[in-house]
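Journal club prep — side note

Before the paper discussion, L.F. wants everyone to see what a predicted structure for a comparable chain looks like in token form. Sequence:
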Amino acid sequence: MTDVETKPIHVWVNPPNTPLPLTASPVRVAIGTPRGQSSNSWRLWVQGEDIYVKCRDDFRELKASLHASGIWRFGFTEEFVRSQPSILPVGKDRAWRKWKPDLADPQKPVIGFQILGLRRALYLVRKKRESWPDSVVFVEPPSETDRMTVLSVTVVHSRTALKMGPGVQGAVAAVLPLGDDRTVQLVATHDELGDVEARIEEAFNRAVQQVRETGPLPDEGIFFVNGNRGEDIPWVTAVPFRQAV
């Protein structure tokens, strides 16, 4: 899976001869390697013409729902809120965010959701993944320290896998049918870090202040953060933290 003008992105599948891109829902994917450290895994699937993306590990209570109705949302799952009624104030929406994508241009792919895999997000060791099925797809991270892996859940008005533009290091890991003439494609790219780490630090510092208003901060843990890339592309990542002794 290469672009003639760029280095390849390596995608690990099991069995090794599994053809890519994958074409059957669901797809479970993580950033990392089977023998090294990885991110959390995420499950992508299609139900009717609705698209769902759900964390399967440390943050399994979170899900993105990209509905055919044109209302897209990200937030807590209904099951989690039902099991933890105290997690939300009465009357508050379980969706952290709702938005309406512009799908009018059939020539324009629309990114609905992104998972960012900077180096700090690759914290799960093999022992923590013993329960994972063999079918999990691993997208290998870049060797460069100033780049990160980005998994983009993209709606495309075509049944053909997207082509990477000049200078883009990327590959299409999955193409799942979405009605008669569209697909949802899982696109993996190696992007420049930009200001992502600085934005994570800012968000963490704000979260620390809020937590300390109600009690002590744990000595260590995993910080989940979400933000926006471009005009309206939500992204998520999770990084470990540890208080200085």
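L.F.'s comment for the group: The radius of gyration is 18 Å. Keep this in mind when we get to the figures.
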